[in-house]
Design a protein that fits this description.
The structure holds 2 protein chains of 2 kinds.
Chain A (H helix, E strand, L loop, with lengths): L6 E7 L6 H12 L3 E9 L1 H11 L3 E6 L4 H14 L6 E6 L3 H10 L3 E3 L5 H12 L1
Parallel strand pairs in A: 1-2, 1-3, 3-4, 4-5
Chain B lengths: L8 H9 L3 H13 L4 H8 L7 E7 L5 H14 L4 E7 L8 E3 L14 E7 L7 H14 L4 E7 L3 H8 L3 E6 L6 H7 L7 E4 L7 H11 L7 E6 L2 E6 L14 E3 L8 H18 L1 H43 L5 H13 L1
The chains are: A alpha/beta, B alpha/beta.
Chain lengths: 131, 342
C-alpha cells in the first residue's frame, strides 16, 4: 500500500540563534502528521538546499529573526534553484516587516507567517498548496 | 538538468548510477512511500549493490550517536571513502508525523559530495520497517557509497533489528545511564560487534567500561566461563577449529564532541570488516540477511494474497465466529489457509 508523507525541512539561515519559533513550528508540523527534518541554526543557503535535496522535501520552512531576510532569502532561493529544487514550496517565518512581504512573494516565497500566527494556519496553508 | 528525466524508472536508475543525487533522493522517497515505482526500482538496483560495508549504530537516546556518526563519516572521508548515512527516528504513534533532528549534529558533513545523509521516520509499517531500511541501504549501496551507516534509537525490538541487519553493529553507551542491568534489559549486548563508551570524559566512564567487560566475560580473556550445573566454571578457550579466533567485541572509549577515540573506533570497525571477510562470517551474515528478507516479503505477500482470496465477507464471518467463541483463532486460521491452498 502506498504510504506518502509530506516532508518539510525547517531551517534557520543566517547568524541569529533564536530558534524557539522554528522549534514550535517543527513540533506543530509533526503533530499534523508531517515528517519534519530539523537542521538547527546557522545554516548557509547551500546547506539548506543540499539538505532539501537529500531529504527530498516538499516544503522548506525558513525562520529569520535577524532582519537579514532580504539578503538571505534570495540566496536560499538561488541555491535551491541551482540544486534543481525550484518546485519546492518555500515558507518564511520570523520578524518580516509588511513592506517586504510583496517583494519576498515576488521572489518566490509562497507563504509568510509573522509572530502570533496560529500553527494551524501554517498547516492549512501547506495542505492547500499540496492539494 | 531536466527533472522530467527523473519521472520514469529507467531515468531514475540511470541518473542514480551516474551519481545524480536528486535521483538518489527521489528513489529513496519512492521506496519509502512504497509507490508504484518502488518494486521496479529495487529490481533494477539490486544487482548493482553488494559492495558497501554496512554499519549499524545504536544505543539509548542521548548517548551521542549522531555526533559519533558525524565523526566517523569525517574520518572515513579523510581516508578517501564515501559515506551514506541513514538516520532513523521514531514516527509519533499519535499523529503519524516525525521530528527528524539528527542532521543538527552532522553539520560538519555539509557540502561534501562524498557524503549523503537521509533522515528516515519509522512510520507504521508492521514488521516491514527493517525491510524498508534494508531497501534504502541497498539503494545507497547501488549508488556506490563505500560505507553505509544506519543510526537508530536503540529502544524497541524493531530498532535493534534494523541495526542488526548491518555487517558491523556498534552499540553506543554513555556513563550515568543506569547500571549494567539496564544494558542486559535492553538486549543490545548480544548484537554488538563493537562497544563505544561515549562521553568518556564524564564521571563513571571507567565503571561503564568495566561493567561492559564483565558482561562480555572479557575480565579474563584467556579463560572462558561456561555454565555447568548452574555454576560458572572457567575453562581454557579451546583452540578454534579453523585458523581464526572468534571475534571479541572491543570496547572503545570516545568523546565524540572532541573527535577523541574516533580513529580508534573506525579502526575497530575496519578490523571487524576484515574479520568478517577472512572468517567467512560475512557470507554467513549475507545469507541470514537474504533469508530474513525473503521471509518478511513472503509473509507479507502471502498474507495479502490470502486476505484478498478469502474476501472481506468471509474474513468478517471468521472474525465473528472467533468473537462468539464458535471457533478458536488457530482453527479459523487453519481453515482459511486450507481454503487458500486448495
Amino acid at each position: 500500500m502506498p504510504d506518502r508523507k509530506i516532508r518539510v525541512l525547517v531551517a534557520k539561515p543566517g547568524l541569529d540563534g533564536h530558534d524557539r519559533g522554528a522549534k514550535v513550528v517543527a513540533r506543530a508540523l509533526r503533530d499534523a502528521g508531517y515528517e519534519v527534518i530539523y537542521t538547527g541554526i546557522r545554516q548557509t543557503p547551500d546547506m539548506i538546499a543540499e539538505a532539501a535535496l537529500q531529504e527530498d522535501v516538499d516544503v522548506v520552512g525558513l525562520s529569520i529573526l535577524s532582519g537579514a531576510h532580504m539578503a538571505l532569502v534570495p540566496k536560499v532561493l538561488e541555491s535551491l534553484q541551482a540544486a534543481g529544487m525550484e518546485d519546492v514550496i518555500v515558507l518564511l517565518g520570523g520578524i518580516i516587516p509588511d513592506e517586504d512581504i510583496a517583494k519576498l512573494n515576488e521572489m518566490g516565497v509562497k507563504g509568510i507567517f509573522g509572530p502570533g500566527t496560529a500553527t494551524q494556519e501554517i498547516v492549512g496553508f501547506i495542505e492547500a498548496e499540496m492539494a | 538538468m531536466s527533472s522530467s528525466r527523473l519521472n520514469s524508472v529507467d531515468g531514475l536508475v540511470s541518473a542514480l548510477l551516474a551519481g545524480n543525487r536528486r535521483a538518489l533522493a527521489r528513489t529513496i522517497s519512492h521506496i519509502e512511500n512504497n509507490s508504484d515505482f518502488a518494486r521496479p526500482l529495487l529490481a533494477a538496483l539490486y544487482p548493482r549493490a553488494g559492495s558497501a560495508h554496512i554499519l549499524g549504530i545504536t544505543g539509548a537516546p542521548g548517548t551521542g550517536k549522531s555526533t559519533l556518526v558525524n565523526g566517523l563519516a569525517r574520518a572515513y572521508r579523510q581516508r578517501g571513502l564515501t559515506v551514506g548515512i541513514i538516520a532513523v527516528d521514531p514516527t509519533s504513534p499519535f499523529s503519524g508525523g516525525a521530528l527528524l533532528g539528527d542532521r543538527v549534529r552532522m553539520r560538519d558533513l555539509a557540502g561534501d559530495p562524498g557524503v549523503f545523509i537521509r533522515s528516515m521516520a519509522t512510520r507504521g509499517s508492521l514488521g516491514g520497517l527493517a525491510q524498508a531500511t534494508a531497501d534504502v541501504v541497498m539503494t545507497l549501496d547501488a549508488a556506490g557509497f563505500d560505507r553505509i551507516v544506519i543510526e537508530t534509537v536503540g529502544v524497541g525490538q524493531s530498532e535493534v533489528e534494523i541495526a542488526s541487519t548491518a555487517h558491523t553493529t556498534v552499540v553506543v553507551e554513555a556513563p550515568g545511564l543506569g547500571d549494567e542491568v539496564q544494558a542486559i534489559k535492553a538486549g543490545i549486548l548480544e548484537i554488538a560487534d563493537i562497544f563505544a563508551v561515549n562521553k568518556a570524559d564524564r564521571d563513571g566512564a571507567d565503571r561503564t567500561v568495566m561493567a561492559l567487560k564483565m558482561m562480555l566475560n572479557l575480565g579474563a580473556p584467556e579463560k572462558h566461563h561456561v555454565m555447568h550445573h548452574g555454576r560458572l566454571l572457567p575453562v581454557e578457550m579451546p583452540e578454534h577449529a579453523s585458523d581464526h579466533v572468534a571475534w571479541m567485541p572491543p570496547i572503545v572509549k570516545t568523546i565524540a564532541t572532541q573527535q577523541q577515540g574516533i580513529v580508534e573506533l573506525l579502526d575497530a570497525v575496519e578490523a571487524h570488516r576484515l574479520y568478517l571477510a577472512q572468517s567467512g562470517d560475512r557470507q554467513l551474515r549475507e545469507q541470514l540477511r537474504a533469508i530474513t528478507s525473503l521471509r518478511i516479503i513472503l509473509r507479507d505477500a502471502l498474507l495479502e494474497q490470502l486476505l484478498e482470496d478469502a474476501g472481506s465477507k468471509r474474513i468478517n464471518q471468521v472474525v465473528q465466529d472467533v468473537v462468539t467463541r464458535q471457533r478458536d483463532p488457530y482453527t479459523a486460521a487453519r481453515q482459511l489457509i486450507d481454503h487458500f491452498c486448495s
